[in-house]
Amino acid sequence: MALLPILQHPDPRLRQKAAPVRLFDAALQRLIDDMFETMYDAPGVGLAATQVGVMLRLAVMDCAPKDAPPQPLVIINPEMFDTSDRQDMEEGCLSVPDTNEKVARFNRLKLRALDRKGQPFELDAEGLMAQAIQHEIDHLDGKLYIDYLSSLKRERINKKLRKQRHPA
Ligand code: ZN
To answer: Which single residue of 46, 47, 51, 113 has CA 20 to 30 Å from 97?
Structure first.
């Protein structure tokens, strides 16, 4: 397995729309394993393929509480439906480091996706898992959570990131 470099905003590749996964081959299994290793190392609760420069509709997640056994989840070609209970939730992103902001998300939803072998499944998600699913699907559509913030807030974050990258 290998750690993959995580793209950082404003990398233009984070703005591309990913294509559906069609081929469930050994290369895909390797990519999934590397994405899990990269996500746990970061650490984060979710990582989309677009964040490591692979334009496929695939994300890995683990929303298990701290000190609980891991609950790795692979979602491929995901779709959400029956969304409800919108609320403001604190959010962050491995591609927008050191920043957390409140974003309105559905607290409940249903997910339809394929697993790493290409088998379809559905699940009911709520709380952090529902939030993470929306966040990862956004990544696959080239969206970042900071897109939901006011332009003032977004500009403040962009300025901070520029400063971190090019310290005066
Ligand atoms: Zn993210």
So the answer is: 113
Please choose, from the candidates 27, 146, 20, 30, the residue with its C-alpha nearest in 3D space to the C-alpha of residue 75.
20
CA dist 137 and 59 (Å) reads 8
Model confidence over 136-150: pLDDT tens digits?
A: 999 999 999 999 999
- Look up 136 and say whether it is catalytic: yes
| Residues bordering ligand 1, an ion, CB closer than 5 Å | 93
CA of 2 from ligand 1 middle (Å) equals 20
51 CA from centroid of ligand 1 (Å): 8
Residues 4, 54 contacting (CB under 8 angstroms): no
| C-alpha 42 to ligand 1 mean position (Å) | 12
**Dist. CA 37–CA 4, nearest whole Å:** 8
pLDDT digits (tens, 9 = 90+) for 12-58: 999 999 999 999 999 999 999 999 999 999 999 999 999 999 999 99
Expressed in angstroms and rounded, the spacing between residue 32 Cα and the centre of ligand 1 is 16
